[in-house]
Every structure is written in structure tokens, then in C-alpha cells.
Amino acid sequence: MPLSIVTWNINSVRLRIELVAKLAAELNPDVICLQETKCPDDRFPLKEAGRIGYPHVAIHGQKGYHGVAVLSRFPFDEVSRQGFCDVGDARHIAVTLGGAAGLKAPLTIHNFYVPAGGDIPDTALNPKFKHKLDFLDEATAWERLHRGEIERRSVLVGDLNIAPLETDVWSHKQLLDVVSHTPVEVDRLGRLQAAGDWVDVMRRFIPPEEKLYTWWSYRAADWAASDRGRRLDHVWASPALAPTARAMTVLREARSWERPSDHVPVMVTFDA
DNA sequence: ATGGTGGCACCGCCA
Questions:
Q1: Which of A7, A52, A75, A115 could serve as A157's disulfide partner, Cβ 3.0–4.6 Å?
Q2: Burial level of A64, CB count in 10 A (0-12/13-18/19+)?
Q3: Burial (CB count within 10 angstroms: exposed 0-12, middle 13-18, buried 19+), residue A16
């Protein structure tokens, strides 16, 4: 059975729930993983999610900042939330789809929102950059502990706030010292990927030689004309699941929607 | 070379 999963940093779920409806109408995904919901759990727009076809919602939110959620057409067998760096941030939620979703075997989706890391790529000068690296280190250690489960049928998606490849940014040279593309961050992300033996599914569909972006700054006068994008959002699959990936879409047009997020949705369809 | 925008909570912080 095909299972389509979207990841999208929505930058406020309450402000943009109608854009989730538009996404649902255009791509019809089975599961939608959101980041930066910026919404306490008791204020999440659950009714609206149900109205647009997603009656099953797993949330890990907080007031004003961060927050992740998973909207699903199918019920979850399990939901879990992991804290990192002991700071109380809502940056991870995992759901398992299985028998109740009609899958032949359980499939776990990890939805991450990695800290952005501030402006200065120096851990001594910028505590937010230190937090970003620490978060990635903790997530890597946590993955090593759970490697046995991850190896089966897992997906890791989210706003990882790092563009690892030279073609994941509009100018490799000009962004080498810009947070999101520094070698130290790329190295940390590589370790996280190696810890789960994750396959970069987006790059299975668009070769590493080609430019590929999922985020364009709000600060550009004309984001499309300047096209100074970065690939900050990712879909990784475990080795067991990766070969079943059938299609991948980066919904670039969503950046032109009215009152858009600065990130666009990415969808991957698996024969799950 | 600089500053440019956006969301939330509350007039600063984070992205």
C-alpha cells in the first residue's frame, strides 16, 4: 500500500491551518509532519485538522516557540516524544503506524525540529550555536541506543536546519561561514545520519549535482528571482524502507501562496 | 556593506 508522508515547517499552525488544507487538497498526503507549530497543545486546531481529513493528530507543542505535530488519515499504534538537552523544548515526536493503518508491518516516523543555531557559528560566542551542536550530538547518541528499532522500517523527517551538500545552497562559497552550511554542522549532521544508517531519500530522486532547496528567506525582495534558497528540510529512510520510495515532490509553489511559510512542503511516497 | 521580513508574546526573542 502506498503511504505518502509530508514534512513542512509551517511557522505557526494556527495562522496557516488553511494552508494545510490547501496542501491536503493538492498533494493528498496520508501523513503530514509539521514543525514550528508555535502552539500550546490545548490550543492546537484539532477540529480543523479533522475537517480537512486528518482525524488523528499527535502533538508536542509549547507556547510561542518550536513545536511539532503529526497529522494522519490513519490511527497511530504508538506516539512518543523525546526531549533533548534538558531545556524543555518541544522538538521531537515519533508515531508508529501499523495494523490500525493497514500496513503489513509497523512503520515509525520521527519528526524533528533541530535548533536553528543563531547567527554566529562559534560555540564560545553564541550559546544557540552550541545548543544546536549539542542537540545533534544527543540525538546521535540516542539513535545509537535505538539503532535496532530504527533499522527496521523508519523514517526521519523534519526541519534539520542544515543544508549539507554544496548543491543544497545557492552559493557554497558564500555560505561556508553562515549557520546552516558550516563544515562543523555538516559534520554533525553526517554523524546523525550515520548513526541510523539513514538514506537521504530526496537525493535519491534529485541527484547531488543538482540544486535543491526547501527554504527561501522572508527577507529577500523577490525570493523567486534571487532564488537564494537552502535545503533545510529532509526526508531520511532506514535501509529497509528506502528502496520502497516511489516518488518525491518539493512543493516550491507553496512559497508563493498568500502569507506563506518560508519553508515549502516535501512529500515522499513509499510502497509501505 | 548593510539590512532586509515574519510570528508570537507582549514591546524583545527567535527564526
A1: A7
A2: exposed
A3: buried
pLDDT mean by block of 10 residues, chain A; 272 residues: 96 98 98 98 97 98 97 97 95 95 94 97 96 98 92 95 98 97 98 97 98 97 96 97 98 97 98 92
The domain A2-271 is placed in CATH, from the list 3.60.10.10, 2.40.10.220, 3.90.1150.10, 2.60.40.3210, at 3.60.10.10
pLDDT of residue A203: 98
CB of A115 within 7 Å of some strand B atom: yes
SS3 content of chain A, % helix, strand, coil (to 5): 30, 25, 45
Query: Which pLDDT belongs to residue A148?
Result: 87
- CA distances A55 to A10, A58, A199, A231, Å, are 19, 10, 30, 30
* Distance of alpha carbon A115 from alpha carbon A4, whole angstroms: 26
Give me the CA A22–C1' B12 separation in Å, rounded: 33
Classified as helix, coil or strand, A180 is coil
Q: Which nucleotide is nearest to A260 (CA to C1')?
A: B6
Residue A66 to residue A89: CA distance in whole angstroms = 7
Place of cell 544546536: A132
Query: Is strand B less than 7 A from the beta carbon of A158?
Result: no
